[in-house]
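Consider the following input, taken from an annotated entry for Major facilitator superfamily permease (Weissella minor).
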Amino acid sequence: MKPDQEQGQHKWIALIAMSLGVFMALLDVTVVNVALPTMAEDFNTTFGDLQWVLNAYTIVFASVLLIVSKLGDMYGRKRMFMISMVVFVIASAVNGMATSLPVLVVGRAFQAIGGAGLNSLSMALVASNFDGPSRGTGMGILGSVIGLSTASGPLVGGYLVETFGWPSIFYINVPIGIIAFYLAFKYVKETPSYGKGQKIDFLGMILSGGALFTFVYGLIEKEHNFDWAWTDPRVMSWLVAGMVLLAAFIFVELRKPNPMMNLKLFKHANLVGGIFVAFALGAGIYAINAYLTTMMQNYMGYSAFSTGLHQLVMSIWALILGPITGRLGDRYSKRWLIAGFLGLGVVAYLSLAFMLSPNMTFMEIVPGLVLLGISNAMVNPLVNSVGLEGIEPAETGMASGILNVFRQFGVTVGIVMLGLTQAHNYESYLNGHWNGLGLTGKLSTELHDVFTKVSAFGGHEVAFSSRMSALPQAKQIQDMVMAAFHNGMVATFLTAGAIVLVGAIAAAILLNDSKEN
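Applying the prediction step yields:
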């Protein structure tokens, strides 16, 4: 085999290593959700305490994305990718063996450090290991893996938990990680150490990590306590702290000779446009997965694994279309492809909103899920590619980190905003129809408090419980809860559609088709 042919084959094997890394990192953001009930029994704890198994990963993952991106630029992205893989695999093994909740939470935090490196550096490594037309194809495949990993959590997690128990969702990372580590070691080309001789900007790293940590923590506090006002000190203090730290970060970086983040990156129109699109993807498309899963499991009666199977009509498109998106982006305008397929996402949400009914069936939502899957499958790879156009090789790691931060931050913001929308419309319907049930006195007050407290997530379980079925008004209550959930989900779909529409408009206005931007 000629050297050129051998090198051409090596880069595709390298892509497998990078794809495995990013798949594991992003899958572990969502895969734990389906394991929480089993964990609650094994650890004899509450769901409230178990939320930290999710939160520890989400918060740390977002907080260190930019830091590992910069370290990759300075000391070699392949080296930092492999270190991240080792951290991720070891932490996964510790999580699988955890016998107490604190150990699992700490393990998840360390796992997130590795996961952030795998996620951020994989995109930069594709950009540096591929060139010419193959770069678009490589970015397209990696983008499809990103979309697929985010959407396939219920399917993978449901199968593993139901078949092997919850530790398996962590143990599975060990053999996959070892394979990916070997492939990366053998086939991924190292990038130059662009920061050789420079001092690490520790202050910039602390301020950037602190700003992201406080922002995300504040949003998670709001997510878990929808009844708290935004001005509640338990929420507002974290958000204000995030803004103060962000302002301090900008102030420091503008005065550093070798800053952690070169703020001149934001002069690139495509990076700025990519940020808006990445945020819209996170807030408008990825965040909806939590609510679709609730709808299918709690209101349509599917198991965790069955939910994942049914969601394949949405997630499978990332696998099918990912390899061709890069080629389309090389031939046609990425700007209008992104704007157009985000527009398709808006159509998908309109379909979901208007086809949904209180007694929802799966076939009613299939057209919307298919369109939503196609939208995500086409846009996600393209935004990764267009966002890095015109960026100097020394800065591609940080640029990819910025895109990933806004995608992940968008997911957190989206979950909160969509959750507030659902909760408000769910409760409004209950309040507007409660008196029509004919309940009086203490029973009416207590039941109303119960349905308000459990919110849309637990309303179905309470309404169809054996104790509730003994009431003469049981059928009315059940119909009302189904209608209230429907009312909330329609509003949620429309809100998500509005977020995606803003992303489409931003793409059309901010992106351009010139690599000199």
